[in-house]
């Protein structure tokens, strides 16, 4: 099978990544994964192909840096080494150890002040809190227990909605220990039921 050409830089089929500031650091792993998928889709499967495509598709300032990385200049380039070296220049870009329990506590404090009146509002809450919570639950030594995740999940919900959730869950689970948090899946189901009923 003949290899096809990579999409042109800037085309709608080409991955792209522009670094404008620290808020873009967390999108770097997604970009590098897209580069690898794009290369594989046209039959390019060598680590050197992935590295060259990454340099091609990123913004000019990052491209200049990445060209100079030892992994990019190695006689036998290794994709994993290149990614590790890229991550070292963009704090919190590596998909592991992006968050700490403090991040989750701060998010809970901030999010409980944000009104939740619609399913869309709740969806944004759910996605944000679970992105942090599930990240902390990963690995062989999770930084967060299931119990702690359940506590944070319910505690971050806007108080008027939380009151309705607590009432619904108490009716559905009359024997539940009030000192234990409900599983976040149950809280999510109750919240969605309440918001759909409005």
Tell me roughly what share of residues is in helical segments.
55-70%
Uncertain regions spanning at least 5 consecutive residues? none
Number of helices: 10
Strand content: under 5%
Task: Give the distance, in angstroms, between the N- and C-terminal Cα atoms.
Answer: 57 Å
Rough outline: elongated
Strand pairing plus helix content: what structural class? Answer: mainly alpha
What is the mean pLDDT? 90
> How many β strands by DSSP?
0
Number of domains: 2
Largest sheet: none
SSE series: HHHHHHHHHH
Short key terms for the protein model shown above:
58% helix; elongated; 198 residues; 2 domains; mainly alpha
Describe what you observe in this structure.
- With 198 residues, this protein is mainly α.
- It has 2 domains: 22-88, no CATH class; 101-197, no CATH class.
- The protein is 58% helix and 0% strand.
- The protein is built from 10 helices and no strands.
- The protein starts with 27 loop residues before the first helix and ends with a helix.
- The mean pLDDT is 90.
Helix and strand layout, with pairings?
Elements: H1 28-41, H2 47-57, H3 60-67, H4 70-73, H5 79-88, H6 101-111, H7 119-137, H8 146-155, H9 159-172, H10 184-197
